[in-house]
């Protein structure tokens, strides 16, 4: 009877609609800051998972019991609140061909595309631009295609196109690192009548340059600059003066939105970390004064860990399960290859990202971008304007992730000193952490492969003796570590389900050892 009641509740959550905004409800298991959605009704072989609700009991750790909760299915929020209280919608992404003007005057043709607060640079040969409007218009005029099915197909194609662009990008820039976007000549960005006449006079391209009295000045009017927080300036030239104005306006809106968005996300992560750790602030804060009697406000009571944390859904969004975005998760983590690889200490925008007492060691910061079936790495360097990608991304086919104490045991013994206290750390966005190494560490085992994860790969099953490669990641705190492990684990499971025939053949590979003749 208990199982039947649970099944009815799950079906009700799938069918009922939240009255506010039409959001769907779903069941999830929560243990402190970890959240596990009940989202797969069948297993890898396609059989019904009659134990789907009970799977969350595996989260039990000693006396810590998981809680079964009903939560709203939230996707990536597409708006923010500015400091003045105004609501700002997420600006649309921008992409197109540009010419990069280098210091010595050389010109480099590039394709620029923005995704999830990052600006990706691609070679024109790998641009994969969107289909022209005439393609969609022909389907609308035809009238033989179901509108809903066609819209869903277009949406899925756009998501896949974004994944292809990100996998083909040779560099990335975080929009938070952009201080300003400006025109090279002031008259090109002024909204006066003279500026409008200048825009209309430029036909664009080579034809516009041939008709211009001063082609050099026209090139400057088509150009704009991206000023980075660290000081370097990137000059780009658009197709026409009108396109230059559009690039400036759209990039400014994206920089404003994503800078504020990352601040909100950082505050949310700080609040979740403070609630979970149940400890006072590492950096003392002045108490707030009460204007009525001049006294300080009493400290807040500690939060109940058994109570629900609605803000936790922002770290475990349904987008990672439904493939509705090209970028599943992105962010910066420490990385090294192998168990005995070296790290590099990296200082970005004047902020030290790790413990000052470990300055003798070398830490390397990487920008990770998780897309469908692959983990892409970009090496962060302070002196570079674009973070260059590693020459090969990590395929999540046959990958395995593990973390915590089990991952720490794989490290050399000299790196684990359980008797030494862990010094506190404070980061430039206000995040404070004092977790030990085993709470911020996770490792990824993977195989080097050049094949795609889309479609059947039953003929490419590696032998059981095939070697794995290991990459070690370290986050800033435990909350970030758990969110990354969850996103990677969900994507690994989706890769397995997309290759069911290969997975079945892999299960049947090998056999029992015959010891009858020994």
Please supply descriptive tags for the structure shown above:
single chain, 518 residues, PH-domain like, 11 helices, disordered N terminus
Summarize the topology:
Blueprint: H1 2-15, E1 25-31, E2 34-37, E3 67-72, E4 79-81, E5 87-89, E6 95-101, E7 107-115, E8 118-122, H2 133-142, H3 147-168, E9 171-174, E10 178-183, H4 193-201, H5 205-211, H6 215-221, E11 223-228, E12 233-237, H7 241-277, H8 319-322, E13 329-337, E14 347-348, E15 351-352, E16 365-371, E17 374-379, E18 387-388, E19 394-395, E20 400-403, H9 405-409, E21 425-426, E22 432-433, E23 441-446, E24 469-474, H10 478-498, H11 500-507
Overview of the molecule:
- There is one protein chain.
- This protein is of the alpha+beta class and 518 residues long.
- The chain folds into three domains: 2-72, no CATH class; 95-256, PH-domain like (Roll); 322-415 and 423-507, PH-domain like (Roll).
- Helix content is 28%, strand content 22%.
- It contains eleven helices and 24 strands.
- The strands form six sheets. An eight-stranded antiparallel β-sheet has the order 10-11-12-6-7-8-9-18, with helices on both faces. The protein has a seven-stranded antiparallel β-sheet with strand order 19-17-16-13-24-23-20.
- A hairpin with a 5-residue loop joins strand 4 and strand 5 (87-89).
- The radius of gyration is 26 Å and the shape is globular.
- The termini are far apart.
- 25% of the residues are buried.
- Residues 1-10, 14-19, 344-362 and 451-458 have low confidence and may be disordered.
- Residues 350-456 form the Mug56/Spo71 PH domain.
- One of its GO terms (biological process) is protein localization to prospore membrane.
- InterPro entries: Mug56/Spo71, Mug56/Spo71_PH.
- Pfam families: PH_4.
- This is Mug56/Spo71 PH domain-containing protein.
């Amino acid at each position: 009877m208990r199982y039947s009641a649970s099944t009815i509740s799950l079906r009700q959550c799938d069918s009922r609609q939240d009255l506010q905004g039409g959001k769907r409800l779903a069941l999830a298991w929560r243990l402190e800051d970890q959240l596990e959605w009940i989202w797969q009704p069948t297993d890898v072989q396609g059989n019904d998972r009659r134990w789907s609700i009970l799977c969350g009991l595996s989260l039990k750790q000693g006396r810590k019991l998981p809680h079964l909760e009903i939560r709203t299915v939230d996707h990536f929020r597409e708006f923010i609140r500015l400091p003045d209280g105004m609501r700002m919608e997420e600006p649309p992404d921008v992409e197109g061909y540009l010419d990069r003007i280098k210091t010595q005057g050389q010109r480099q043709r590039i394709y620029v595309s923005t995704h999830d607060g990052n600006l990706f640079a691609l070679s024109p040969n790998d641009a994969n631009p969107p289909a022209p409007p005439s393609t969609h218009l022909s389907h609308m005029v035809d009238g033989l295609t179901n509108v809903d099915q066609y819209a869903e197909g277009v949406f899925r194609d756009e998501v896949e196109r974004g994944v292809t662009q990100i996998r083909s990008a040779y560099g990335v820039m975080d929009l938070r690192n952009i201080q300003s976007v400006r025109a090279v000549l002031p008259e090109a960005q002024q909204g006066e009548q003279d500026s409008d006449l200048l825009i209309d006079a430029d036909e664009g391209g080579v034809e516009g340059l041939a008709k211009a009295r001063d082609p050099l000045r026209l090139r400057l009017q088509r150009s704009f600059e991206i000023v980075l927080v660290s000081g370097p300036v990137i000059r780009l030239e658009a197709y026409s003066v009108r396109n230059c104005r559009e690039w400036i306006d759209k990039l400014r809106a994206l920089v404003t939105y994503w800078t504020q968005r990352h601040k909100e996300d950082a505050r949310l992560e700080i609040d979740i970390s403070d609630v979970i750790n149940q400890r006072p602030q590492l950096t003392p804060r002045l108490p707030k004064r009460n204007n009525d009697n001049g006294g300080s406000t009493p400290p807040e009571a500690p939060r109940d860990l058994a109570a629900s944390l609605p803000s936790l859904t922002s770290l475990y969004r349904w987008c990672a399960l439904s493939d509705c975005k090209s970028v599943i998760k992105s962010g910066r983590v420490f990385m090294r290859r192998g168990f005995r690889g070296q790290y590099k200490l990296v200082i970005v925008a004047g902020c030290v990202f790790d413990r000052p007492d470990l300055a003798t060691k070398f830490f390397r910061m990487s920008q990770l971008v998780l897309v469908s079936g692959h983990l892409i790495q970009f090496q962060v360097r302070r002196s570079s304007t674009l973070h260059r990608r590693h020459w090969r991304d990590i395929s999540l086919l046959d990958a395995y992730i593990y973390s915590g104490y089990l991952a720490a045991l794989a490290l050399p013994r000299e790196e684990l000193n359980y008797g030494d206290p862990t010094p506190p750390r404070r980061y430039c966005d206000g995040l404070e952490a004092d977790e030990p190494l085993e709470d911020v560490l996770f490792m990824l085992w993977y195989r080097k492969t050049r094949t795609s994860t889309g479609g059947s790969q039953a003929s490419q099953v590696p032998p059981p003796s095939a070697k794995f490669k290991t990459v070690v990641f370290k986050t800033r705190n435990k909350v970030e570590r758990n969110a990354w492990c969850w996103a990677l684990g969900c994507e690994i499971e989706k890769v397995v389900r997309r290759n069911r025939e290969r997975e079945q053949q892999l299960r049947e590979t090998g056999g029992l050892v015959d010891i009858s003749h020994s």
